[in-house]
Amino acid sequence: MTSEHAGGTRERILVLLRRHGRLSAPRLAELLQLTTVGVRRHLALLGRDGLVGSTTEKPRRGRPTAVYRLTDAGLETFPRHYDEVAREALTFLKGRDAATLAQFLAWRNERLAASYAGRVEGATLAERTDALAEVLNEQGFMAEVEPADGGLRLCQHNCTVEHLATELPDLCTSEAELFERLLGTRVERETTIVDGAVRCQTRIDLGTRGNHAPKRTTPSPNRKAARSPA
Fold first, then answer.
1. How sure is the predictor about 50, in pLDDT bands with cuts at 50, 70 and 90?
2. Burial code of 60-98, b = ≥16 C-beta within 10 A, e = fewer?
């Protein structure tokens, strides 16, 4: 059996589990017109990849049998439209009541700050910036810290909410405010992915000290409102 055909079989198994919810290996073999042994091999590989899980059920008659289902990761292999729904909801909210959107973003920052605060720590601003980059990496932002003239530059090579931020720059501004809060100093957004740059760059001035971040971000000198991934 070629690897291409094997991949096709596993995709068919995923589709059948999506359609039927839960199926045993013998039932899958029947639907696929394959041997049960062969189907079990494919299920083992899908289980290894975290796409399929199983539970043992005991019927009224006969031996207990394993029943397979899609895991959350397996479900995510099928089309999703989270970005579209979120974008529509936030756009509607902003159009209906911009103040409510601002309250939502402030509430979101409160939650994120509480989640990150215990990890974004350090005696120096440089240490806190490195810690922030590590947290952002865990969220998929591909972040790193570079030296800059008189300060640091926090670079994000991926935007996890790019489609949303393109239409709602409020998300970018909110993220910069979160950075200020966590780092305890002003930041300046220099470039952003949603504005066409290959990465988002945030400048952090090492000469600025303080225990609390200011309420507003310092905008980039060449724009009125900075954008970046939230």
1. very high
2. eeeeeeebbbbbeebeeeeeeeeeeeebeebeebbeeee
Mark out the alpha helices in the chain (DSSP H runs).
3-20, 25-32, 36-48, 72-75, 82-96, 98-116, 125-138, 162-167, 170-183
Distance CA 134, CA 120 (A): 9
Tell me the HSE value of 93 on the side-chain side, using a 13 A CA sphere. Answer: 16
pLDDT tops 80 at residue 167: yes
Q: What is the pTM of this model?
A: 0.64
Residue 209 CB coordination number (10 Å): 10
Would you kindly state where each structural domain of the chain is located, as residue ranges? Answer: 3-75, 82-205
82-205 sits in which CATH class? alpha beta
What architecture does CATH give domain 3-75? Orthogonal Bundle (1.10)
